């Protein structure tokens, strides 16, 4: 399912005499069916507010939004049936078993085969053996998995995951990430709010960086290229100034810098241009140990993007 927002805005009117809080302003997004889409932004950027609007938990102040063919504010019942939501602090009945908790929610969602669906997701998330235990006895990771199971019981085509791996140990976090990839392969649209940029980079096709308003939206790769260009690192046995000058003499070379025994070269198209540079360096007597691409992480991109706003 496709998700579209058009000038989506949310303003919270707090206490009297207090200025209103603009949480989300004029947000325009087009999330493609079947993509994993990351919502990135600092604390208070409006990520949760956006998710709450798209899942019909709160009404937009202005603008509009569509989840598949359904319009937020007009078709809320259909939207609730089509979306699954994992919130930051999913509440469960602590004294009841995992199975009982899921059964209650499955009934609430009018799931047809309650028993079958509950079993399917308990098994899928590795909780089947612990199904009779009270949720109060579960670890954080098990609770998170149970919450994911709960969000999936009614087989939503769209899934909103707010910080799905926060507070999980690396093993549990990996399990959840693998599971997200599995859900993606089933063609579901997944919207992921996360502060874990490494995770966003691994899972998301595209990300939006926003802070109340949209700042940038693209694939992590394109954002990286746009902000940093592409850079190639030549590791040499030692660097001679004439090799730096040689590299600078190529018209397509954008910039050259050195760091210890490395020469870093900005190139628009390394696949085409590297072989030429390698050949000329070798001819000039350089001893090349390695050649690699300097990778900027999504974290670099994120921080640089927000810096542009004076963060
Ligand atoms: N119910 C509310 N009443 C008043 N203000 C609110 C309400 N919900 C959110 N806000 C405000 O809206 C802004 C955006 O909050 P939101 O929770 O959407 O941010 P977030 O990007 O999810 O942040 P975090 O990364 O910290 O979870 C904040 O300034 C917050 O204080």
UniProtKB/TrEMBL annotation:
Q: Where is the ABC transporter domain?
A: 3-236
- Keywords assigned by UniProt? ATP-binding, Nucleotide-binding, Transport
SMART domains per the UniProt record, alphabetical: AAA
Per its UniProt entry, which superkingdom is the organism in?
A: Bacteria
Write the protein's name. ABC transporter ATP-binding protein
A Pfam family cross-referenced in the UniProt record is ABC_tran
Q: Name one GO molecular function term.
A: ATP binding
